[in-house]
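User: I'm writing a tutorial on reading structure tokens. Could you give me a worked example: one chain, its sequence, then its tokens, then a sentence or two explaining what the tokens reveal?
Assistant: Sure. Here is the example chain.
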Amino acid sequence: MAVEFESNKSTDGTVELTPLIDVIFQLLVFFMLSSSFLYPSLDLILPELDETDPQTTPPMLVVNLDADGATFVNSEPVEMARLTEVLRSLLPEVEDRAVFLRADRRSEYATVLEIMRRSSAAGALQFHFLYEEAGDGL
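And here are its predicted structure tokens:
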């Protein structure tokens, strides 16, 4: 004689969501409590910034060289013979005594070197080249 047992398990494939909701709720409570300790409540009086004050940025000294060999210092035309004199007068106002060069790609290499030489003679301690990112490579 064979005895058959009935199973109490349901075979419809449902998932019990109550334990998942409990875990999510515990995580939520944990993160809420731990985030309140990141910035503890301190009684601080923060300074206010007057929006009417202009924000000062340190001046940049940019030497521009166009394709024809014309030289400009911060968009003012300067002859190559006067470049050292002009840079010497402007460099003390510049942070790190840095000179930035923007040169047209068609400008002569010798002219770029001459600008670098005159910048060093004027007292420049740093020399930076400004360029644009190539969209499709070189």
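What the tokens reveal: The longest strand covers residues 98-103. The first helix runs from residue 18 to 35.
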